[in-house]
Amino acid sequence: MSATLRLERVATTRDAAATRALAFELASVARPGDLVCLVGELGAGKTQFAKGFAAGLGVADVVSSPTFVLMAEYEGRLPLFHLDLYRLEDAADALAGGLLDDRQAAGVTIVEWAERLESALPAPRLDVVIDGTGDEPRRIALRTAHDAYRRYLEPGG
Ligand SMILES: Nc1ncnc2c1ncn2[C@@H]1O[C@H](COP(=O)(O)OP(=O)(O)O)[C@@H](O)[C@H]1O
Ligand SMILES: [Mg+2]
Known about the structure:
Elements: E1 7-13, H1 16-27, E2 35-39, H2 46-56, E3 71-74, E4 80-84, H3 88-94, E5 108-112, E6 126-131, E7 138-144
Parallel strand pairs: 2-5, 2-6, 4-5
Antiparallel strand pairs: 1-7, 3-4, 6-7
Helix pairs in contact: 1-2
The structure holds adenosine-5'-diphosphate and magnesium ion.
C-alpha cells in the first residue's frame, strides 16, 4: 500500500478513565516493534493514555511519567518501553543512535512529546493526538501513514 496512505479514527473521552479505557482496548492489537507516539500539551492526558495502554498489555506495575529517566521499561504480554521527551536536551544524546534499538523490537514503545523528535520519527508508527486539557472532553485522533498500523484504527483489530 502507498506510503502516503493517511488514516484517522477519532474518539472523544469525557474523563481520564475513558482515555485509559480507549488505550486499554488499543493495546489488544499491539505487536512487537510497534511505536505509539503521544502528542498533546501538558495535561492533555498522554500519561493517562500510557497507563491504560500498559494495563491493556497486562503490565501490573504502576506506570507514571518517566521524569527522571528517559525511558521506563515494564513487563507485560509484550515488554513496554515508556519514554517522555519533554526535556529533549537530555534525550537528544541518548537517542543519537535512533529511537528504536534491538531490545525495543521485541516490545512496544510509547513516547510522550514525540513531536519533539520531528523528522527523526520513523514513518511506521501510530500517532495519538490529544486535544483538550483540564475539565474539557478530550478529542483523541489516532492516525497512521503506514498500512501495518491500520489494525489500531479498525475496532476489533
Ligand atoms: N478525558 C480525559 N482524558 C485524560 N485525562 C483527563 C481527562 N479529563 C481530565 N483528565 C485529567 O487530565 C490530567 C492529564 O494528565 P496527564 O495524563 O499526566 O497529562 P500529560 O501526560 O499529557 O501531561 C489528569 O489529571 C487527568 O485526570
Ligand atoms: Mg505525561
